[in-house]
């Protein structure tokens, strides 16, 4: 295994993502002080799981996050990733490459991953435990820490040897075993105490248990006799109710027949009313059609009159257009005549101009070939002078242009630099604008999603609002039903309990301290009704009282009045019965076991002891299979029940079968008081639900309004975001266009700069040519000046002749100019006339087309007038026909009204007969309900007295004949007397006796298990101590031998060795380092020089590395105190170990750098962040290349 890569982001000075790839062998890291070299070591320790901030050179872990600088903002978290090559299987993970990542947020939160999977910090520590890389490992030596291996106490030095020997994992196992052993010994003491207490508790229960068994036998016979008596009475009342119900059903059938007849009559009446309404509707429809036809006839008549008026107006328009057409034709003829005259005048002017041209040519003929040569000479002299002046001017211009080009070149260079900066700024602005645009688009998508969600919510609210009224109506119907049921149950509850319980409840004010029956104080979940029913048995009607005195006072009251018997539960003496913790733990491992039944029954806190007393040792299981498994696990010492009423009794007996039928309210057959309380609670719940539905309707309306407002706000927000997106998009486009323009300007500046250079070269060449031309021009100017003086005299004579010629020529030119001006005026007039003629042609064409279109409209209008006239005749015929149809509707309506009146009279007679049948049916139904109520009272007595539903009583008991009833009543009285003589009997003593025996058996088994566990843990501790000591001694011997070898090498002689401070107990003592440098006697380590201590520490470190191979070693300026000679030995040791482990050395020493295979440089940039440069020393002669390994 070796270190492959290290990646940092935001860790201390590494504000940018920075990666380092490590090669095998020796890697040296160099750089100036403060550049961040040691931060790499801290990063490795951090990712390996170091939790102590001081070990990472900080006061808090949050200080590791890059806090920013003047040129770079701070970051929100620091993250370090270490990539390890695991192809040799050094770690037991199934990966060839292991990536360990740890992140710390600025708020102090931390997270870690191994190959992308989240792990705990403890998992990181466990991964590197006993590898030499864990916390406090010897393979990572920080700055200034090399001396600590020698300077620390012997006991602290032993920790490094334990890490080397790999026994820290054994120490963890030993601590866990010692903690388990202490817990086992405490449990042993507790179990022995419990067995002693249970033995003392079991002795006084035996006599009381025998009385309880006799009491249960008598009570069972009493239940048999009473059950047969109640069943006989129930059957009599049910027969009476059935007979009355049959009569009511017969009357109900007759009522149904009469109701059907009335329904048919009502349907016939309804059909007649419908027919009458249809006739009325038809009549109204015909009347509407009649009025509509009449209105349309009036409209057609109005349209006809309007068409006639429009036709007359259009005919007058045609007359006007015909007159205008005639005028336009006449005007066109006049324009054509003027056009002919203008063309003739144009031809005359052209002929006159030609004549003037001939005269001018004849006049200038004498001066054509033999003209004065002086002007030509003057022209040449002037030309030469002008050429010289031009060349001088051109020379000055070129010199100025060259200076201007030099200035422009400087300006272009400055402008190019400015354009480059502006172009970079424009690119950055475009990136920022694009990022803002992405943010706006993300917000836009979020708002759109929220708007869609809001619309969906609004639709759901609307649907809920529509269903609220239907739910409200259903709730009102349910309220009426529940009120009737509560009234009936209230009557039944008064007869639910036995005579003694009823007597005590009636005198509760007189007696005092009577809190109520168990059934009135418990709140049982509906699905557990059967389970609680079978678990409590007759305890439903036990009376809960404040104190023992209240119970004695109530018993005396029953004896004095002769009102029967009752069982009392005093709160001050009652004790809870609970399962031991061990049994609870066993049950927790059984699938399908819910726990103790008492935990599922609700009551007030003061009555919790009653629940725990009655149900604290009853286990609740989901199914009979789970119940059987739980009972077997507990040794069949505890009762286990299921929600369906199945029971596994102590000892292994099982009770079960078909579930009991449910009552009208859907609940199990609880005592009537419990059912009444449940019905009242259901009524209150229904009333509450009714109120909640009303409130919910209002809330839904308010929510709909709120959703509408929120939707509008979201739409406004969406529009705003769309506008903002458009603005951001335009901003991005502007920035991009600006960048493109600046790039084009930059290219133009480069081109202009190149052109300027070429122009300068051309100008210099042209300057040389112009200077040579100027010399030639000045010589020619001198020669021509002499020749000009010679010919000046001859020119004077010819001048006078020319003056006459020019006077005559001027007169001819004036005349020609006048003729040309007149010709131009004539041409303009001719063009104006041609435009007028063209305009007249267009106008005549338009007028003629409009005239023809008007005639077509007049003919079409005439057709429409004839069509409207025909339609008027048709409407008159339809109106007459509608009048006849309305008369037919009146006759049909009269006949339908008469038949409807007859049907109403028959329907009144049928309703009277139905009312009489209803009265008789309700009377018989009332007698049936009374008989049913009496039967229900008997059923309730069966439930209250015998805890049996009526169906179970029918299966269990046989009804009595009329002759057997008196004897049964006498036997019932004698049984009650025998039970009274027994007095108060605590039947729970049987369960208590069985519970104590079961508990003692369980505790005995637990005692054996605990003693066996104690023996196993003691043996485990002895084995761990032996293994740890053997490993430590072996590692110590190997390190001592290697230390002796490395001391001799580094010091060039002398000796050094290791000594145990407590050889008999090496794991409790320490390790002393003994050193005798060459030529010196043995002395304390504190008296050694800094270099000697450093060499001793390095000798010990390399001894560790020789004994225990580690993946990599990191040394931070470990050789700082060594001189040049010892530095060479240190480098030689590095080379020895480079083949067996990977070495990372942070150094300032050039000699150490020379031993390295790869050299990294750490520098601090201007923005305050560290970056890394790497040089491969093997390739530096061939490529001389430095690669930057810092991501921007």
UniProtKB/TrEMBL annotation:
Cellular component, GO, one term: chromosome
Bias (Low complexity) ranges: 650-660
Residue ranges of every copy of the SMC hinge domain listed in the record: 512-631
Family of the protein in this entry: Belongs to the SMC family.
Protein name: Chromosome partition protein Smc
GO molecular function, one term: ATP binding
Subunit relationships: Homodimer.
GO biological process: chromosome condensation; chromosome segregation; DNA replication; sister chromatid cohesion
Keyword Coiled coil carried by entry: yes
Sections of the chain in a coiled coil: 167-254, 283-492, 676-836, 886-948, 993-1034
This protein's UniProt keywords: ATP-binding, Coiled coil, Cytoplasm, DNA-binding, Nucleotide-binding
Region feature Disordered, mapped onto this chain: 647-670
Function: Required for chromosome condensation and partitioning.
Free-text comment on this protein's domains from its UniProt entry: Contains large globular domains required for ATP hydrolysis at each terminus and a third globular domain forming a flexible hinge near the middle of the molecule. These domains are separated by coiled-coil structures.
SUPFAM superfamilies: P-loop containing nucleoside triphosphate hydrolases, Smc hinge domain
Residues annotated to bind ATP: 32-39
Keyword Transcription tagged: no
Gene3D superfamilies: 1.20.1060.20, 3.30.70.1620, P-loop containing nucleotide triphosphate hydrolases
Location(s), subcellular: Cytoplasm
């Amino acid at each position: 295994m070796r270190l492959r890569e290290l990646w940092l982001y935001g860790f201390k000075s590494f504000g940018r993502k920075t990666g380092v790839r490590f090669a095998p062998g020796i890697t040296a890291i160099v750089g100036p002080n403060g550049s961040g070299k040691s931060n790499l070591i801290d990063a490795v320790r951090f990712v390996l799981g170091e939790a102590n901030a001081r070990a990472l050179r900080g006061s808090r872990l949050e200080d590791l996050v890059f806090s920013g600088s003047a040129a770079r903002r701070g970051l929100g978290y620091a993250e370090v990733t270490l990539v390890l090559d695991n192809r040799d299987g050094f770690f037991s993970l199934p990966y060839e490459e292991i990536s360990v990542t740890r992140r710390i947020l600025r708020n102090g939160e931390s997270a870690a991953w191994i190959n992308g999977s989240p792990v705990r910090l403890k998992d990181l520590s466990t991964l590197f435990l006993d590898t030499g890389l864990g916390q406090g490992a010897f393979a990572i030596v920080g700055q200034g820490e090399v001396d600590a291996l020698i300077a620390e106490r012997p006991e602290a030095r032993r920790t490094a040897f334990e890490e080397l020997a790999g026994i820290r994992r054994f120490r963890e196992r030993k601590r866990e075993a010692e903690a388990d052993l202490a817990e086992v010994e405490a449990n042993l003491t507790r179990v022995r105490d419990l067995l002693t207490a249970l033995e003392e508790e079991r002795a006084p229960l035996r006599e009381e248990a025998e009385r309880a068994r006799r009491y249960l036998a008598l009570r069972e016979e009493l239940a048999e006799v009473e059950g047969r008596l109640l069943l006989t009475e129930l059957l009599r009342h049910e027969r009476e109710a059935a007979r009355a119900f049959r009569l009511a059903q017969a009357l109900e059938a007759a009522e149904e027949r009469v109701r059907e007849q009335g329904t048919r009559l009502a349907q016939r009446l309804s059909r007649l009313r419908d027919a009458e309404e249809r006739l009325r509707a038809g009549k109204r429809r015909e009347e509407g059609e009649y009025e509509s036809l009449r209105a349309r006839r009036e409209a057609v008549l109005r349209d006809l009159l309007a068409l006639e008026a429009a036709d007359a107006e259009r005919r007058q328009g045609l007359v006007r257009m015909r007159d205008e057409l005639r005028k336009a034709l006449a005007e066109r003829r006049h324009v054509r005549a003027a056009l002919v005259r203008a063309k003739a005048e144009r031809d005359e002017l052209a002929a006159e101009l030609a004549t003037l041209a001939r005269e001018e040519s004849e006049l200038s003929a004498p001066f054509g070939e033999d003209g004065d040569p002086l002007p030509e000479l003057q022209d040449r002299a002037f030309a030469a002078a002008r050429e010289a002046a031009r060349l001088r001017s051109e020379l000055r211009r070129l010199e100025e242009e060259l200076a201007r080009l030099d200035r422009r070149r400087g300006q272009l260079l400055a402008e190019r630099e400015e354009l480059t900066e502006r172009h970079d700024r424009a690119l950055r602005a475009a990136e920022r604008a694009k990022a803002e645009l992405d943010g706006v688009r993300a917000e836009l998508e979020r708002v759109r999603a929220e708007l869609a969600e809001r619309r969906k919510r609004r639709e759901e609210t609307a649907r809920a609002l529509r269903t609220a009224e239907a739910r409200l109506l259903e709730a009102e119907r349910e309220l009426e039903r529940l009120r009737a049921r509560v009234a009936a149950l209230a009557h039944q509850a008064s007869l639910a309990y036995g005579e003694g319980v009823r007597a005590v409840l009636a005198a509760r004010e007189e007696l005092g301290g009577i809190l109520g029956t168990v059934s009135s104080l418990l709140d049982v979940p509906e699905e557990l009704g059967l389970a609680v029913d079978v678990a409590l048995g007759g305890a439903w009607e036990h009376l809960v009282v404040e104190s023992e005195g209240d119970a004695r006072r109530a018993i005396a009251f029953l004896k004095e009045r002769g009102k029967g018997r009752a069982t009392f539960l005093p709160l001050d003496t009652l004790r809870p019965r609970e399962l031991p913790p061990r049994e609870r733990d066993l049950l927790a491992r059984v699938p399908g076991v819910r726990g103790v039944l008492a935990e599922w029954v609700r009551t007030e806190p003061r009555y919790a002891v009653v629940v725990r007393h009655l149900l604290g040792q009853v286990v609740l299981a989901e199914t009979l299979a789970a119940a059987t498994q739980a009972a077997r696990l507990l040794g069949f010492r505890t009762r286990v029940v299921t929600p369906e009423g199945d029971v596994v009794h102590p000892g292994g007996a099982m009770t079960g079968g078909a579930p009991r039928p449910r009552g009208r309210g859907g609940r199990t057959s609880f005592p009537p008081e419990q059912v009444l309380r449940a019905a009242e609670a259901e009524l209150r719940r229904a009333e509450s639900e009714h109120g909640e539905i009303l409130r919910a309707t209002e809330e839904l309306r308010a929510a709909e309004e709120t959703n509408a407002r929120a939707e509008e706000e979201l739409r406004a927000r969406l529009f705003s975001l769309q506008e903002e997106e458009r603005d951001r998009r335009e901003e991005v486009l502007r920035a991009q266009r600006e960048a493109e323009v600046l790039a084009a300007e930059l290219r133009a500046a480069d081109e202009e700069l190149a052109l300027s250079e070429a122009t300068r070269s051309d100008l210099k060449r042209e300057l040389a040519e112009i200077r040579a031309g100027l010399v030639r021009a000045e010589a020619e100017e001198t020669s021509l000046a002499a020749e000009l003086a010679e010919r000046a005299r001859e020119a004077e004579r010819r001048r006078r002749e020319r003056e006459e010629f020019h006077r005559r020529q001027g007169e001819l030119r004036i005349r020609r100019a006048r003729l040309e001006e007149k010709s131009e005026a004539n041409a303009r007039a001719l063009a104006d006339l041609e435009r007028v003629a063209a305009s007249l042609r267009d106008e005549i064409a338009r007028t003629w087309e409009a005239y023809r279109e008007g005639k077509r409209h007049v003919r079409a209008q005439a057709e429409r007038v004839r069509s409207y006239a025909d339609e008027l005749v048709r409407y008159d015929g339809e109106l007459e026909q509608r009048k006849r149809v309305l008369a037919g509707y009146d006759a049909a309506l009269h006949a339908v009204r008469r038949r409807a009146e007859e049907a109403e009279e028959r329907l009144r007679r049928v309703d009277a007969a139905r009312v009489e049948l209803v009265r008789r049916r309700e009377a018989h139904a009332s007698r049936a309900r009374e008989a049913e109520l009496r039967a229900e009272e008997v059923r309730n007595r069966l439930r209250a007295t015998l805890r049996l539903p009526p169906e179970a009583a029918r299966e269990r008991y046989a009804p009595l004949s009329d002759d057997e009833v008196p004897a049964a009543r006498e036997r019932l009285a004698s049984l009650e007397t025998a039970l009274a003589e027994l007095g108060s009997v605590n039947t729970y003593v049987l369960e208590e006796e069985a519970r104590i025996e079961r508990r003692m058996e369980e505790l005995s088994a637990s005692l054996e298990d605990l003693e066996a566990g104690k023996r196993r843990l003691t043996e485990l501790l002895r084995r761990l101590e032996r293994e740890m000591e053997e490993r430590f001694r072996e590692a110590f011997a190997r390190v001592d031998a290697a230390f002796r070898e490395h001391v001799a090498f580094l010091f060039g002689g002398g000796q050094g060795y290791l000594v145990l401070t407590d050889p008999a107990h090496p794991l409790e003592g320490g390790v002393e380092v003994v050193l005798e440098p060459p030529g010196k006697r043995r002395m304390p380590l504190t008296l050694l020089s800094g270099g000697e201590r450093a060499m001793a520490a390095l000798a010990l470190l390399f001894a560790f590395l020789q004994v225990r191979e580690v993946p990599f070693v990191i040394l931070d300026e470990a050789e700082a105190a060594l001189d040049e000679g010892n530095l060479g030995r240190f480098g030689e040791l590095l080379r020895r170990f480079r083949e067996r482990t990977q070495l990372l050395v942070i150094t300032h020493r050039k000699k150490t750098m020379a031993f390295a295979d790869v050299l990294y440089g750490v520098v601090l940039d201007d923005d305050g962040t560290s970056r890394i440069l790497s040089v491969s020393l093997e390739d530096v002669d061939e490529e001389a290349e430095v690669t930057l390994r810092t991501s921007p």
